[in-house]
Design goal:
By secondary structure, the protein is of the alpha+beta class. 41% of the residues lie in helices and 13% in strands. Strand 1 and strand 2 form a beta hairpin. The longest helix has 31 residues. The termini are far apart.
Length: 171
């Protein structure tokens, strides 16, 4: 026979309630105990692998938005830096007052607050660059010629950049 005990809200507060600690972030409330905040230990969250999982409609996006909003609080975490890849554009609205949003084909309307994302050619490897520029190259000979020319241009670009850096240091 299994013994079952009802847990009171007072006991739940002892188990879950640590709201006075600065390293806890509130992400909601404990189910069936609306007066007890659901807290996440930020130290454990950011120093370990983490995942937010659930079925459709269970609140994954809301939870992530709560976490990012809490972590980007400049009063509580003044040196926090967060890079978020929001592939579906879910978080821009809730974070626009505290984030710089970059997007390919950004909306030019200043109310939306998107910045154009530019990816420099040198950030792409050869296969990515040839696919973007030429739709791929089938001929091995053409591929080798293009690869040689791109490497030459990248090398010259680096030399110019180093030269510019030396001139800045001299000034």
């Amino acid at each position: 026979m299994i013994t079952v005990h009802l847990v009171s809200e007072k006991e739940l507060k002892q188990i879950y309630g640590q709201p006075n600690e600065g390293y806890f972030v509130k992400v909601g409330y404990i189910s069936n105990a609306d007066s007890i905040p659901a807290l996440i230990d930020i130290n454990k969250l950011i120093t370990r692998d983490s995942a937010v999982v659930g079925t459709t409609g269970s609140g994954k996006s809301t939870t992530v938005a709560s976490l990012i909003t809490a972590l980007s609080d400049t009063n509580k975490y003044p040196s926090a830096r967060i890079i978020m890849l929001d592939l579906h554009g879910e978080y821009g609205r809730c974070l626009k007052d505290r984030a710089r949003i970059f997007k390919v084909n950004a909306d030019p309307n200043p109310i939306v607050g998107e910045n154009e994302l530019y990816i420099p050619y040198w950030a792409l490897n050869f296969d990515e660059l040839s696919e973007v520029c030429f739709g791929g190259i089938d001929s091995e000979k053409e591929r080798d010629i293009l690869l040689e020319k791109i490497q030459k241009v990248k090398s010259e670009s680096l030399k110019l950049e180093y030269l510019a850096m030396d001139q800045i240091r001299i000034l």
